[in-house]
Every structure is written in C-alpha cells, then in structure tokens.
Amino acid sequence: MKKAFYLPFLTILFLAGCSSDDGGGDPVKPDPDPEPPIVESYYEIPAALEDYYADVDFNLEEDKLHEELAVHTIEKHTDILGYGSRHQYLYNADADFNNSGNVVLIYTGESRDKREYQSGSNSYSPQTFNTEHVYPQSMLEGDAIADLHILRVVDIEVNELRMNYPYTDGEGQYKLVQDNSFYPGDEWRGDVARMVMYMNLRYDEPFEPVGGLELFLEWNVEDPVSAFEMQRNEVIEDAQGNRNPFIDNPHLATRIWGGEEADNRWDGEAEEADEEAPSIPQNVTVDEVSFETVDLTWEASSDNVGVAKYNVMVDGDFYTSVTSTSLTVEGLEPGVTYEFTVSAADSAGNTSDASDVVEGTTTADDEAPSVPQNLSVSAVSVTSVTLTWDASTDNAAVAGYDIYINGEFYQTVSTTEYTLAGLDALTTYSFAVKARDIYGNTSELSASTDATTKEETDENAVAADILISEYTEGEWGFNKALEIGNPTAEAVDLSTYTLMKITNEKEDWENEFQLEGTLAAGEVLVIVNDGAEYPGLLDAADVLTDHQIVNFNGNDPVGLFKDGVLIDMIGFKGGEVFAADVNLRRKSSITKPNTTFTIDEWETYDDEETEGYGSL
C-alpha cells in the first residue's frame, strides 16, 4: 500500500539556502517561486478511473475524506431519474453475463427473463420479480427513491419476505431471522454493505435503522467486490453520471470509518486476467419428477479461481443460474419430455461447455376432478342469489369452479361459495357447477338447482347510496387512494359510514376508518395515503392520512359499511389479486353500491392515470 509522503516546506527552504561552495562566497538566494512539495497520492488510481476521480484528494482521512467523496458523488449525479424510467437502466445493470435477455436477482442469484417484471402495465406472463430498495423505500424521500445504486431486481416472494426488516448477520443462503431481521446470504452481504455505504455518502442516510455500521464494515471485508457489481457501476454511471466509490475500492470504507482492512483495489498491483473456464459439470441426473417439476443434480465443477454459478438450460433455452449443484426446475407441462444441460461459470464471466444432455419426463395428468356435490341456493333477493357446494377432489389440485346459468357458462371462481348479482327480478334460473383442475381437466356438470328471484317492491328495492367510485394501488411507494362518490340526488351524512379492509388471506374485516362530514349530491370524498407522491392524488386529496385503510395491496379487499352493514365492496376475500399496480374507476352508469365485486362495473387505467379523481 502506498502512503502519503510529504517533504516539509521549511526543510526545502533550508536546503535551498545552503551553498555548496566550501570556500565561502555569496550565499545562494532562495527561489522566490519554489516548486510545491511533491505529494505522492495514497492510491494508484486505475487509468480508466483517473478522469472520474481527478478532483478528489485521497490523502484526506476519515470525516474529511467522507466529505470530499460525498461532494464529488453528488456533483457527478447529473441525471436524476424518475422512478418510472428506472426499468431501461436497472435491467441492464442487473443483466446476466451469460444471457443479456435475463437479469440476476439479488438474494437468490436466480436468472429471470427481463420481461417477467411485475407491473400493471406489463402484459407479459408470468410476472415473477419486482424492484428491491436495499435501503428501504419507506425510509427515503425525494431523489433517493429512484437512485439506481440501491435498486436491485428481486423475486416477488423474497421481496415480501424481506419487507423493511433491517439486515443482520448469518450464514449460508438468505433467510428471515427471528421474524424481525434479514440475512441477505453469503454472496450478497458485500453488495448490500457497499450499497448502504453509498446511501450514507450520497444522502447522509444513517446506518443504524438498516443494520449498523459495524456489520456493514465486516461484510465489506468478508465479501469482496464481484464482477457483477463492477458491471452495475459502469451501467449506472452511464445512466445517472455517478459511481459507487466503495465498489471501485472497498478500502475507502476502512479509511473513512475504520475497522478491519478491506480489499484495496488501487494498490497498483494489477491482477492477471482470468481467462480459464471451469470444467464441464459431470453426471447430471434427473432424480425426481412431478406434474410440472423435475429435480436435477450434478457434480461440482472445478476452476482455477472458483466457480461462481451454474447455468441450467431446458430444451436448449436458458432457464436459470444457481450457486448449488442441484435445482428443482419448475413451471413445466405435465406429460412432456424435456432435455436438460448444465454449464459452469466463474466470476470473470468464463463459462464451460454444456454438460451431456439428460432427459426427464414430467408426470401426465388426464384425470378430471370429482363432480361438485350438494349445490344449493340461498340468500335469494331481487337481483342476486348465493350458490354453495361441496369441494371437489383431484389427483393434482382443483383450481376453480365453472358456474353455468341456464346451461351457459357464466364465470370461473376459486371458492365454493359465490353470490351472483345483476339478475332480473322475478325470474327463474337454473344453476350448475363444474370443477376445473390446474391443468384444465374439467368434471361433469353437477346436478342443477333452480331458483326464482324476488319481485321488486318498494320494500326490497336496492336503494341508491354512496359507493366506492375510484381506487389506486400504485406500483411503488404509498401511492394508494380511495374515492367515495355520492350518485344520489341528496346530500348524505357520512357519520353512519365506515371503511374497512381485509389483509391478504384473512377472513375478518379490520382497520375501521370512520367517514366524517356531509357529502353533497354528485360530489366525492378522496382519501389518500399521506406518503403518496403522484401529483394527481395529492391535488385531489380531501383527506391525507397514514391510516391503514389506504395502505393496501392489490389483494386486499376494501368494504364500505353503513351502520355496520356492508353495502359496497372492491376486491375478493381470500387473498386473490384483483387490482395490483392499477387505477380502477367506477363506470358512470353504476349508481348503486354492490356487495359483490364485479370488474365489469369498473374501467382499468395505469396506476399513474389519476385524472378522474375529484369528480364522479
């Protein structure tokens, strides 16, 4: 390591004033414009980074070096990205070395098709990953939310597992620890540490809420910078102008905060390029099959530096990357023979040839579910009836039930109880049900059951009333809102109305929110989460609140209650996703509330299209 070397200025003056003439004579006068002392830089900056770091004095220490780097990093951050524009850059930053059409997910290391990102505006299926804020988004504001240096792609379920929990130490793969902290995994702890350090440098975000400085200093030492992190740094510099200096040189963290010596990547000792590929994986074996999965195992490859991952191919197409020597291949079709190969890759991007091909055939499913039994009708009203039946069985799994009205298919539902709305008064209907399994096999029709709706009278007519008229579940952050509309001809006293929601797969309504005031005829009440950032929501808000009633996800139904009785509802019980990352606006033709959510009553828009708020 090179240390700063200073030649004291007084010494220079003294030497300059001494004569080398032993015989005496006039002394040599000091140079009025002496050369400045030669100061050798603490680091040898690589040629590729010399221009970027040209104005940084790396001879500073601790707080002064932190301040110097912070100012530099902020000044270099010339392109402030909007959160919605992050896709085109983030998915390049996280691109798989061996398949540019895929991204590598943090925590799991899996490789996924870039088209599988979760968004209400994305028509591709399946949608398996979304965006992780390594420093939790709920703790950030302003430009920090869209900074690419802390954004990573992540499996949806893993993102939900991590939530906003702080990081903690651990061993092995990612895991939730004691239900209140999260270990990112051995191969990702250094990535996390350097991203959090960047947030402290760039935005002065504290370490304590997300795990503590001591922990991140340890991880910075234990998990060196990977080629993947270096790729991200290059792409992000092109996108927003600045780099993460702790990726360029982890030793900067030691200089600033102390702790054990981290790797100094600027010590002038250039490493030889690794151009040797790992050995080919041997003895790839199919161990077990099911309707849609195949278990693969293989022998570990060897490498001159180390094997970083294994790339698995299915029928010649890239499937995923893993760090282990086994994998369950999912999402296959029943009764189909597939070909599998595996190649090994190191951190320098060298990849072995593919292994020998091994075949595996999934289990076929031609068996239909049992016929639904005991179909019955209850709660008959003027325009609706409720159907119930016994659950069917299947050798695989029952996916849902097809409801038929008068011999014609009506709708597929996932429960064994369903309320049919929108029927005609005083009309006889015949109902029957089929069971459907997850592979499309259907049972025979159940025995039919008839019911006659009631005649509409003054006593049982569905009254016009206030209703939920608009809903937003934003793709990111707390952009969540509800609009209550009054389509009646009279002003309505809101003191008898409340809103409640059901979270995930729970059964009971909770988080009661009391409405207040008077809602004039034809007017609306807009309730917005106080953490929202969409201008359309903020401009239209009558109520800004942190109440849980406007902290829902796309599978949390919301109900409108009058005197404790449900009169209107958006969504389904049971955790079924009905409106994620979208805006729903009630059609103007709907003037009465409905306790059965019917998507035909709503128009669907992008989550940021909020122009409809503020009016019926």
What report would you give on this structure?
This protein is α+β, with helices and mostly antiparallel strands and 616 residues long. The protein folds into five domains: 1-40, no CATH class; 52-257, no CATH class; 282-361, Immunoglobulins (Immunoglobulin-like, Sandwich), CATH 2.60.40; 376-452, Immunoglobulin-like; 467-606, Immunoglobulin-like (Sandwich). 15% of the residues lie in helices and 27% in strands. A six-stranded mixed β-sheet has the order 29-28-23-22-32-33. It has a four-stranded antiparallel β-sheet with strand order 11-10-13-14, with no helix packed on it. Helix 3 runs antiparallel to helix 7 and helix 5 crosses helix 6 (213-222). The longest helix is centred in the N-terminal third of the chain and has 15 residues, at 62-76. The radius of gyration is 32 Å and the shape is flat. The model is unreliable at 1-24 (pLDDT under 50).
Main traits of this protein?
616 residues, alpha+beta, Immunoglobulin-like, 6-stranded mixed β-sheet, 4-stranded antiparallel β-sheet, 10 helices, flat, disordered N terminus
Count of individual beta strands: 33
Biggest sheet details: 6 strands, mixed
Query: What topology, given as strand order, has the largest sheet?
Result: 29-28-23-22-32-33
Radius of gyration: 32 Å
- Which segments are poorly predicted (pLDDT under 50) over 5 or more consecutive residues? 1-24
Topology overview:
Elements: H1 9-16, H2 62-76, H3 87-93, E1 95-96, E2 99-104, E3 111-113, E4 129-133, E5 151-155, H4 156-162, E6 175-177, E7 181-183, H5 189-203, H6 213-222, H7 227-240, H8 245-248, H9 251-257, E8 282-289, E9 294-299, E10 307-314, E11 317-322, E12 326-329, E13 337-346, E14 358-361, E15 376-378, E16 385-388, E17 398-405, E18 408-413, E19 417-420, E20 428-437, E21 449-452, E22 467-473, E23 480-485, E24 492-493, E25 497-501, E26 510-514, E27 518-519, E28 524-529, H10 535-540, E29 543-545, E30 558-562, E31 565-570, E32 582-586, E33 602-606
Parallel strand pairs: 28-29
Antiparallel strand pairs: 1-2, 2-3, 4-5, 6-7, 8-9, 9-12, 10-11, 10-13, 13-14, 15-16, 16-19, 17-18, 17-20, 20-21, 22-23, 22-32, 23-28, 24-27, 25-26, 25-30, 30-31, 32-33
